[in-house]
Write a structure and sequence with these properties.
Layout (H helix, E strand, L loop, with lengths): L1 E9 L3 H8 L12 E5 L7 E7 L7 E12 L3 E8 L3 E12 L2 E11 L8 H5 L2 H18 L1
Antiparallel strand pairs: 1-7, 2-3, 3-4, 4-5, 5-6, 6-7
């Protein structure tokens, strides 16, 4: 198992941040790694996801994901990949800090491929995840 994690504090109430994060079909408007997400954001539902690879020149690739955790205003998580080979558990966790929101975003990778995937390679993806946090902040600034 390998993982990466980012966090930031946004100057917006948790309900505003949740409104944006939970609208998966609009992720492409603010997350530079997302080309598209199709499907309902309900626990157990399937999503069709197209992302730009955070390494390798940003080539787009598609995968099916399943919403695993959905706790309104607090957590959204999905899994996708090839079971047993390489699966990612991607999560967003929100914590209310008065008029601000702490956002934790990360991914846990499991499967056989993780045994040859160095932590250095995982860490090289961190800027892509941080760019999603920046994109979220900029989108919220324009919307609200």
């Amino acid at each position: 198992m390998k993982s990466l994690r980012t966090e930031c504090v946004l100057p917006y109430p948790v309900d505003m941040v949740w409104e944006v994060i939970s609208d998966t079909e609009k992720h492409a408007l603010w997350n530079p790694q997302i080309v598209s997400i199709k499907g309902e954001c309900n626990k157990g539902s399937s999503l069709s996801v197209c992302v730009r690879s955070p390494v390798g020149g940003g080539l787009p690739f598609r995968f099916k994901a399943s919403v695993k955790d959905l706790d309104s205003g607090k957590k959204l998580a999905w899994t996708g990949g090839v079971p047993g080979i390489l699966t990612g558990y991607h999560y967003w966790e929100l914590t209310e800090l008065g008029d601000q929101t702490k956002v934790v975003q990360g991914e846990v990778f499991t499967g056989l491929f993780t045994s040859v995937l160095s932590q250095k390679r995982i860490d090289s993806m961190l800027p892509a995840y941080e760019s999603a946090n920046t994109g979220l902040h900029n989108y919220l600034k324009k919307q609200f």
